[in-house]
Amino acid sequence: MKYPKLRELKEALTALIKGPYTSDFPRKNHHPAKRFRGKPEYSNEGCIACTACAMVCPARAIEFRDVVNKDSSTRKMILHLDECHYCGQCSALCTTREDSPPGIRHTTEFDLAGFDRESMISSTDEKELALCEICGDVITAKAHLAWISRKLGSLAFSNPTLFASSLKSMGFADDVLQTAKDSILRSDRIKILCSKCRRKTTIERF
Ligand code: SF4
Ligand code: SF4
Q: What pTM does this model have?
């Protein structure tokens, strides 16, 4: 029992001379360490709206809102800061974590208390969705398909959905796909399709 008491005494004396270990916030500004996990922030440029961060978030603090309309269909990623644990799973497992900029990263911002829950969010802009050309279901964000195509390089041309969406993003898909439709048996396969319709056109209609 004697030694712990001496240790505490030593710590008390050190603190008297050197001052406390804790910072003087809020009287003085606090500058957290560089790798401090503060407010998570989306990057519009880096985020491809794949929803992986929403799937791994243990607090379910991340939602994605899909709006499907006749003219345009979009997805928005929304992170609720008032529900976030600042655990870092979203940034550690973000699909584009190795890109520059990554889809989401932690800032060192920590003074986030407030009264209006609606304003305590971090979100992306609305990203365009890719819909199945047969049933109209949401496949994923177009930016996600483009990211996969970039990663696969020439291998992406073995996947009709990636191939067709790349052609469309370049603006000359209609001619190519329409010509193919006239001359290829089971031409439904070379459309942008969800997994269910892909299975139907590949296996069930064989
Ligand atoms: S830091 Fe953790 S709790 Fe917060 S949004 Fe990311 S995964 Fe969810
Ligand atoms: S790119 Fe990263 S931040 Fe964006 S939705 Fe996917 S996992 Fe989340």
A: 0.82
